[in-house]
Amino acid sequence: MHAWSTGAGNCRPAEVRMEIEGPVPNVSSQCEAILRTLPAWFGIESSILQYVRDAAELPTFVVRDAAQIVGFLTLREHFPAAWEVHCIAVRASHRGQGLGRALHEHVERWLAARGARVLQVKTMAAIHPSPEYAETREFYAALGYLPLQVFPLLWGPRLPVLQLVKVLAGFAPERGVYDRPARTLPANERAR
Ligand SMILES: CC(C)(COP(=O)(O)OP(=O)(O)OC[C@H]1O[C@@H](n2cnc3c(N)ncnc32)[C@H](O)[C@@H]1OP(=O)(O)O)[C@@H](O)C(=O)NCCC(=O)NCCS
Question: Which residues make beta-bridge pairs with 87?
């Protein structure tokens, strides 16, 4: 369990103790309650129910205050070194207070301790007009994710997907590995 205090810069008491735990079982109904506070992101009923089922199956981490779970993150393992943030959400009333970052950083440490090296996440691409998902992309950028590829049809028509990746701390390639002199680069990689 990881605990810290928050409060500065928001409307909550100066010292609100938050705790992060995970993976934890039997939290899918609390996860559902959080998703239902965020209809601009999670507005498709079948998707909500799938995320709720997934929270019961996948490693799920939570952040809670004294009263309730206020955020969660589910992980999917693709390979031992390559994992995916399957779903992350913070209760609408608690957004923008550092909880998403703290939860994600906890998960990064948990993954790194297990030898994971890269983390991916998929979200709505910028060619979709949603202002809410523009905020989500800002969040991932703040956490150090890099955009990797857009999949126009992965989630269906009119739901273009952006895949982002992050190399986990401790596993960034040593400086110099990609700094080969230009003459050794294949022609298609040389600066034009
Ligand atoms: C995305 C989400 C999990 C982030 O959690 P959060 O607690 O609100 O985010 P934090 O307060 O921890 O912010 C972390 C960083 O992201 C940035 N960020 C967060 N929300 C942002 C926004 N709306 N606009 C710009 N930047 C934002 C912050 O500037 C912050 O950067 P800093 O730590 O360097 O100051 C949460 O807002 C949420 O549940 N959003 C709706 C659901 C969603 O988008 N889920 C992901 C679907 S793919």
Answer: 74
